[in-house]
Amino acid sequence: MKQILLLSAALLIATPACALAQSALPNSCAETSVAHTQVDAHHFSASGFAMTIPGSRASLDAAGVTLDDPGRVLDGGALQQLSDLASVALLASITGHHNFGCNGPWMKRTARNYATSVIAGARPDITWHDLTVHQGPVTVHAGAAHLQLSGQDGGELRLDIRFDHVTLNGTGGDVLAPDLLTARASLPPESLAALVQMAAAKDQPSRAVHTKLDSVDVTFGRTEMHGSGTAELTGYPDTMSADGDLSAIHMSGLTDRARDASLNKIAAALVIAKLVGHRDGDTTRWKLGWQGGVLTVNNVPLPLK
């Protein structure tokens, strides 16, 4: 989930919404299928939604996808196309599989148009119901995944993300799946196109994308984690930078969950993390940083390799 900011690579259109219907997601980027669709004014829904990335083992399935625009700017046809673009960004962000077939002027142009529409009042609201993402033997499932983008004239774009009832299979740490994950981030409207390229095609932008992580909240049973920070995203870990604050309540609950599953190395790492954190009752706090591929905790570099 560390790439969660890249999920915003999903919003596009500006001037007449009907123009968006002329653009399609290339098969070289991703292939989609649906069992049934419903297109209305400012609403689109599809059942039996499936997506695969050519030449990979990455796929996404959802019992249904629902898109609405409470701002009443984007029509049903625009939202239908948005379902494909949002889904390929979501799939790439979760699996880490970026397809260069998604790279091209059409992606940048569409993203710029959508950013303009959001500033003009569009508020795309997307929900994937009963979502399953596969990457080879690894499976990520969520009861629902929700994404909303909003903005205001002269202001930043705001992205809200929520994953409910997450389960993992095949990761070696399946019991550590969060029960709930929510995040809110903001970025300049002109940065959306670059973020799209990073998420879908691993294309390095001409300059880093400044993103503010207003809040991240993760629940693991009794354990609750809260964080915030900023990042300069480039699409590559060794050249990006980030810093922020993280706190955890009842961290022993997550440690016990790892220990009960015989994930001894993870349990030990959680114990060490608690020791180096700043304690305040049952709350532990850390100052995190990332620069040049090096993670620091409370200004102390950690050897990850």
List the helices and strands and how they pair.
Blueprint (H helix, E strand, L loop, with lengths): L30 E3 L2 E5 L2 E10 L5 E11 L7 H20 L9 H15 L5 E11 L2 E13 L6 E13 L10 E8 L4 H10 L7 E12 L2 E11 L7 E9 L1 H10 L3 H13 L1 E3 L2 E9 L2 E4 L2 E3 L3
Antiparallel strand pairs: 1-3, 2-3, 3-4, 4-5, 5-6, 6-7, 7-8, 8-9, 9-10, 10-11, 11-13, 12-13, 13-14, 14-15
Shape: globular
SS-derived structural category: alpha+beta
Low-confidence stretches: 1-23
Give the number of DSSP strands: 15
Largest beta sheet, briefly?
15 strands, antiparallel
Q: What proportion of the residues is helical, as a percent range?
A: 10-25%
Descriptive report:
- The chain is α+β, with helices and mostly antiparallel strands and 305 residues long.
- It folds into two domains: 1-148 and 192-203, no CATH class; 204-305, no CATH class.
- Helix content is 22%, strand content 41%.
- It has five helices and 15 strands.
- The protein has a 15-stranded antiparallel β-sheet that branches.
- Helix 1 (76-95) packs across helix 3 (192-201) and helix 4 (251-260) runs antiparallel to helix 5 (264-276).
- The longest helix is centred in the first third of the chain and has 20 residues, at 76-95.
- The radius of gyration is 19 Å and the shape is globular.
- The two termini are 20 Å apart.
